[in-house]
Amino acid sequence: MNTLMDVLRHRPGWVEVKDEGEWDFYWCDVSWLRENFDHTYMDEHVRISHFRNHYELTRKNYMVKNLKRFRKQLEREAGKLEAAKCDFFPKTFEMPCEYHLFVEEFRKNPGITWIMKPDTRSSDDQKDDIPVENYVAQRYIENPYLIGGRKFDLRVYVLVMSYIPLRAWLYRDGFARFSNTRFTLNSIDDQYVHLTNVAVQKTSPDYHPKKGCKWTLQRFRQYLASKHGPEAVETLFRDIDNIFVKSLQSVQKVIISDKHCFELYGYDILIDQDLKPWLLEVNASPSLTASSQEDYELKTCLLEDTLHVVDMEARLRQRSEETTEAALLLPSSSEESFQLIPSCQEEISLSRPCV
Fold first, then answer.
1. Is the C-alpha dihedral spanning 336, 245, 48, 127 positive or negative?
2. Residues contacting residue 139 through CB under 8 Å, at least 6 positions apart
3. Which of 172, 186, 270, 272 is the most buried (most CB within 10 A)?
4. Cα 38 → chain centroid
5. Does 96 sit behind a cis peptide bond, omega within 30 degrees of 0 on the bond before it?
6. Is the Cα torsion angle 186, 212, 354, 305 positive or negative in sign?
7. What is the structure's pLDDT at 212?
8. What's the pTM value of the predicted model, to 2 decimals?
9. Region 17-24: what's the mean pLDDT?
10. Per-residue DSSP letters for 71-89?
11. Rounded (to 5) percent helix, strand, coil in the chain
12. Band of pLDDT at residue 320, cut at 50, 70 and 90
């Protein structure tokens, strides 16, 4: 089920443009951005769904490079305690350029499990032109928090409207994605044990298409609260919020903050047995295909509320007094899902469902 096309086509006053017609809003893919952005003239009101160099955060090697640089900057300017707030990504080496550093680390810690990942590939975005011989070697989290003996990660959505100043919203709804098989390190090659991607899990012989492998974020919070208490849950989600803020700040000075651009990121977070969150990756094109009716409802609400924040209707009204093609739409769930509040010197929204 394609939630994106359903939402765009059913939005009042919006008209789908064919071929080379003029457009006001484009939910483009990253390949179009790479090929056309620099050669496309856009009026003041026009908006597209990616920043020009989004890959500074969404390619694994660039993300780690920027986080390491930002951590060193914080240590110089604010001390080790503040820099330690960036210790939320597993030790990672870019291959082959950091091969010798990786070998040194490997020899210092024998028996540690490492995972190799193509540096440009993510669980949702499989298109890029970087040669496949480029990888990252990342320490595998061997002690994930388990529910029912199964591994999972969290998909959380962050909408960025500007990097200078940094203006971002955290979507309150998301989900936990579970593996279909009980976790064990004895079968390290079994993708149904270690990978939580729906695209992988739905090929499992005992996958149940109606049941699926997802929990809503609210259900996940309620489960944790029943096991560890509300205070532990609040601490965990504050730590996750820190991941969003610090990761965005790490690329704030390198992302080209074009006024025509916004970005809906899909963050993948793993929780370990100590309730410590780890950033696995950030997706520039999070999957908007629904795997169940519940998934469809979540993603359609996400998209409707994203469009409400982007607010093309208001931009078009400012451009012209004629509003025939720009009806105002206020989704009923938007005020509950997005909330913009000031945080330090930046504008960051942190809106969470109650336990």
1. negative
2. 90, 91, 92, 112, 113, 114, 115
3. 172
4. 25
5. yes
6. positive
7. 57
8. 0.85
9. 79
10. HHHHHHHH-HHHHGGG--S
11. 35, 20, 40
12. low
